[in-house]
Amino acid sequence: MAVAQLAFSPKQIENINQDITGITFELNEGTPRSGKTTSDAFKMADFYLRTPDQNHLVSAYNQEQAFRMFMDGDGLGLMHIFDGCSDIRHDEHGDHLLIYTPTGDKKIYYKGGGKANSVGAITGMSLGSVTFLEFNLLHKDFIQESFRRTFAAKWRYHLGEQNPPAPNHPNLEELDRFIKSGRFLFRHWTPHDNPALTEERKKELYDELSSSEYLLDRDWHGKRVMPEGVIYAMFNQDKHLAKTMKGRVLETFFVADGGQGDATSCGFYAVSFDEGKYYLTRLANYYHSGSETGQVKAMSVYAKEIKLFIEWCYNKWDFPRWNYFFVDPACKSLREELHLLGVMTDKADNNSRDRVTSNGLKIEVGIERVQNALTKGVLFLLDIEGEYDHYNLIKEIGMYVRNDAGYPVDKYNHACDELRYAVNYFTKTYLV
To answer: Taking the CB of the first residue and of the last residue of the chain, which one, N or C, has fewer CB atoms within 10 A?
Structure first.
């Protein structure tokens, strides 16, 4: 072996020596430079020596990163661990490291999985294990197909690693199947787990990261926090998820934003008054995404399901009937289908009549209103459980960000748009 003798930390040794009996997915999550990837390479090297399966996969956002992080690994990757008994090869399935082991030749393919079309690179392959580098950056279709590719493995195993993602990052949903079946293991990492970092360097890092609460939480403590650039970063689940409503309910209304490939979201809202202040509470939410679920529904189906949602809301709460049922004006087909079911709708205020702001976007007016409502403590989500909870909005809030030019990215914003329309009405009616 070309790898020099290494001193591993207790966390790295624990990771490398972990008995994976009964574990189908193991996730190493923590701060950058905490020693995850190095120990994962040695962990999987041992796995490849013992597994009876021939083909395996290492994935990152793109192929270059997969090679750099795991095959090379700054001199500590698989090609160095197996120096002298491996070769880089290419076959009909792609580039791979061919390892000559006592249990037979093993092919470790390395591929990118960050884009929608990445799934095509692994379709049809039969794999024994998959290593997901930067799991939170990979495309959900690629992750799902990777799980399917290991169905017939003799030793079926998946290893994931990532820096702390945003709370409710959509990729975390893909782990539910393993968590619920009791075949999941989570391991948390911090800079203290990397023996390459001296005490002096760790102090330097702590002092540097302490300048930002976000950086300290994510890159020192390894916590899942809202990423910088998040538009509604002032949202706090502890603060804005309410167990009960404030004051007396004055009115209720619905707001919907729809699409077939995109998500269709319908929120039920109540305005209340307490001690001289008006409050807006989002009580419940109907949400379905054709692109995320792979099940695209007709607008007539969405309308029927929304009507059932309306009935559910009024069975649960004895509140005044809605005064308005706002729908994004662009969703003409959804409005028409609701009308056929006897649900009369109104055009939502989507900020199209507002002045263009300095960055040329009218929606910034609505975004600022939501930010102000959250900051002033007049906007809440009622903490409920079940089919119509606020999970999808909270997930979107954690992912709805600005690009490098400062413009809102048109992604993860369907429930956020519905919220914006609701706050537009609330602000103009009660706060201005």
So the answer is: C
